[in-house]
Amino acid sequence: MELLERSARLGGKAGSDARDGRLVEHGYHVFPRWYPNVRRLVSEIGTELIDFDRYHYLSRGQFPRVVTVRGPSDLGAIWHNVRRGILPWYHTVLFFGFTLDMISRPLSDKRLLDRVSQIGLMRQAWYVTDEVAELNQENLLKASAIPAYDMSAMTAKKIGGFWLKEASPFLSVLPGDLQTTFIAPLEAKVREAGVRVRFGAEVARLDVDGGRVRSVTLTDGEVVTADAFVLAVPFEVARRFVDGPVFALDPSLGNMHQLEAQPMASLHVRLKKKLEGIPREHVFFHGGDYGLSFIDVAPLWERAPGDPPTELSFIASNYAPLKSLSTEDATKALLDEVRAYLPFADEDVHDVVLNSNVEVPLFINTIGAWPNRPEARTKIPNLYVAGDHAKNEVDLACMEGAVSASLAAARALLEDASLPELPGPESPRTWPRPLLVAGRVAMAPMLAVCTVVARIAGALRSERPTT
Ligand SMILES: Cc1cc2nc3c(=O)[nH]c(=O)nc-3n(C[C@H](O)[C@H](O)[C@H](O)COP(=O)(O)OP(=O)(O)OC[C@H]3O[C@@H](n4cnc5c(N)ncnc54)[C@H](O)[C@@H]3O)c2cc1C
Known about the structure:
The protein is an alpha+beta fold. The chain contains 13 helices and 20 strands. It has helices spanning 36-44, 75-84, 89-103, 110-113, 118-124, 130-144, 153-165, 178-192, 235-238, 244-249, 327-341, 399-416, 433-463; strands spanning 2-4, 16-19, 22-25, 50-52, 54-59, 66-70, 171-173, 196-198, 203-209, 212-218, 223-225, 229-231, 260-262, 265-271, 283-286, 292-296, 310-316, 349-355, 362-364, 383-385. Strand 2 and strand 3 (22-25) form a beta hairpin.
């Protein structure tokens, strides 16, 4: 068995690259509780995750005062969020009511839900206020790089349902960089299993013969033959392989041209001084232009003596406006925004590294994407598709989606080759639907009260004289 990788390392977007003698994350990665397949891999390699039950919002100029949101693991956490949320309590209740409403919808709505944006679904709810819609938009963008007006309501429903069922720990992080604590041990397992890993092997095309893929041709002209092939590359690469002969065998693969991707950038800022007051967990900048969120990895990772005491790992979920800027100009724009939220001076900066990731954008679950995504088993008898864009139970472009789709592809391949069976991917759990519907019905009177309070509060605010 051979694994052909075009770059010099495994891991793809969930890895880190050597830059100036150290490893820099493609972007920080979180591991929610509801990642059964990824968590199984993590436990197989013996890596201990660090668990968090909360995240924080930071508003411009407010540091170190943050608003803390706890994962909805119990009534105490929900009550905390209602009392101390970023929005007044009545909007927070309406937000929670909408979440319950969305996730309690039947999956028979699947085709319809996939054609409605998450914000469109929200607008159908009689009780949703502008404040709730805006916060929802902000959260979704930061979590997924997808604007709420583009995100499939089906994807949002699924993810909300998984998170509500398994909210503790709300999310976890690795105890070190992605390459050292996750990808390198996984690579060792793959090699141990007898797989030959080849770096710098970039596939240029699939060679079709007699209704099957006979070989792949690499960019250096080498031809690699095999009995079966799994395409585990991003869709914007995979669709380039859909030429005339491939399309003739499976026209549905051409639908990958309908899929969309956006860059999700990361910015790494190391400071010479310790920035006191930074929470241990992730912090979202409330407002802002580039969808920035960060975590200080310095207290969490084992580090070398002399490493700077603050190491802020940022993600910019809204990088599109900076796409055509030089690295220097984009870094400056992002740093200007960071400095509006966090107090440090130019002379405090040890170094800054930007990964714009423009060349390797992230698949985004836009409205109507589902029918255009490839299945694990294609119509070409020895060709299988894996990766976060392939159809899978999780639906969102994330590590769990990629692993889930890859397990499905491996299972299909073994089945077709009459080889020993592999268990399929485990699905994340959700609450039984009748319970969710009962919760939604029980909340209806509360939503009515909160809507009235929100309207009165809104009217009073608009009557207040502005100075
Ligand atoms: C900034 C950022 C933050 C993220 N944060 C999270 C997070 O917190 N949690 C989470 O679960 N997910 C997160 N994700 C998403 C997650 O990283 C991806 O969904 C996942 O890594 C996708 O895996 P994949 O195998 O489908 O594709 P990729 O990771 O893109 O891997 C594809 C591989 O194929 C190789 N390749 C490409 N073309 C060729 C070719 N022609 N020949 C040979 N090899 C080729 C690439 O080099 C790469 O190694 C984040 C993504 C980004 C960009």
